[in-house]
Amino acid sequence: MSQSTPEPHPEEHPPPGQPQQGFPQQPPTGASQGQAQQPPQGYPQQPPQGGQALPPVAPSEERTWSIVAHAGGILVGFLAPLIVWLIYKDRSARLDDQGKEALNFQLTILIAYVVGWILTMIVIGGLIVFAAWVCTIIFGILGAMAASRDEWYRYPFKIRFIK
């Protein structure tokens, strides 16, 4: 009886010094085993909790995403600042701050909408909904304009849900 060797699994490594068929080839690294390679310049030294290191955000991109966080609230409510903040919070201090600022404001406005719709049985509910809508438009535009000038915008009122 002939004995055959089992096919190796791709995640296994071949014995040192003996490349075998079926094992993936390791690209040459230029560094000896046991030495860590440095990430390219401009990348963080340590990746965030088991993930890959992400490049920092360029200033022009910071401006653009800051505008999206503020103006996006006019169209889609809290979703635009939430998405911007979740994606860029670890890569940019400005987007972390402005994303939280816009998100807190939009969540405050959401509460005003809910309270207003509950109180629509009384005339005051319609006024609350209208005031919340006007504040969303005015302060969203002011925030987007400040972001386009590379300024950090603070809303005049909000409940700080995310610190």
From TrEMBL:
Q: Please report the record's description of how this protein sits within the membrane.
A: Multi-pass membrane protein
Q: Where in the cell is it found?
A: Membrane
Residue ranges for the region (Disordered) are 1-58
Which residue ranges does UniProt annotate as crossing the membrane? Answer: 67-88, 109-142
Name any one Pfam family assigned in the record: MamF_MmsF
Is Ribonucleoprotein among the key words of this record? no
Assigned keywords, A-Z:
Membrane, Transmembrane, Transmembrane helix
Q: From which domain of life does this come?
A: Bacteria
Stretches with biased composition (Low complexity): 19-40
Question: What is this protein called in UniProt?
Answer: DUF4870 domain-containing protein
Supply the source organism for this entry: Isoptericola sediminis
